[in-house]
Amino acid sequence: DDDDDIPQLSSHTLAALQEFYLEQQQREGMKTSQGFNQYSIGSIEEDWQLSQFWYSDETASCLAKEAVLAAGKGGRIACISAPSVYQKLKEQDGEDFSVCILEYDRRFSVYGEEFIFYDYNHPLDLPKNLLPHSFDIVIADPPYLSEECLQKTAETIKYLTKGKILLCTGAVMEEQAAKHLGVKMCKFIPKHSRNLANEFRCYVNYASGLD
Length: 211
Fold this sequence. Notes:
Elements: H1 11-32, H2 57-71, E1 75-80, H3 83-91, E2 97-103, E3 115-117, E4 135-140, H4 147-160, E5 161-170, H5 174-181, E6 184-185, E7 200-204
Parallel strand pairs: 1-2, 1-4, 2-3, 4-5
Antiparallel strand pairs: 5-7, 6-7
Helix pairs in contact: 2-3, 4-5
Keywords: Cytoplasm, Methyltransferase, Transferase
InterPro entries: DNA_methylase_N6_adenine_CS, Efm5/EEF1AKMT1, Mlase_EEF1AKMT1/ZCCHC4, SAM-dependent_MTases_sf
Main location: cytoplasm
């Protein structure tokens, strides 16, 4: 019988699949319902295949506050591969600063003109309207703990910043961070919404409130 060749899902797998789709529908429904904040952390889910790990709410708030203070009144802030800081900055409506997000994940294009597609493999492949040294502070969280990734991201950072840099990466990258960006480790220890195996730290090249 030809029907024997058709793979059948077990009742357990089928039930799990239906539950998954139901949860997905509920999440989508939540997103379109009134009062949903498109800038809240987690509104776009982590994609581990893209090495995405969102900061905890407390860490994102702390880094956003630091960025606003460092940028100054009317300051410009660039977030490179750090969407949770961007989202937290956007929650601060009415604050006197502007911000953009450079990100490989095109799901963040929902944020309109402030989204800039960014691939660290092509560090200077940027839109013409992103002028050199036009941001008061650049916050970056390179997606991979490798010197190649840090070095290429550093090219973008140095191109965009007027001077101030806030880097978030693994503690193991301390030497390379100093070498490529002249930044020093802060006392503040960033946390993620899910625990990471690698110790994570912040680095700056200016007198910050993170010490």
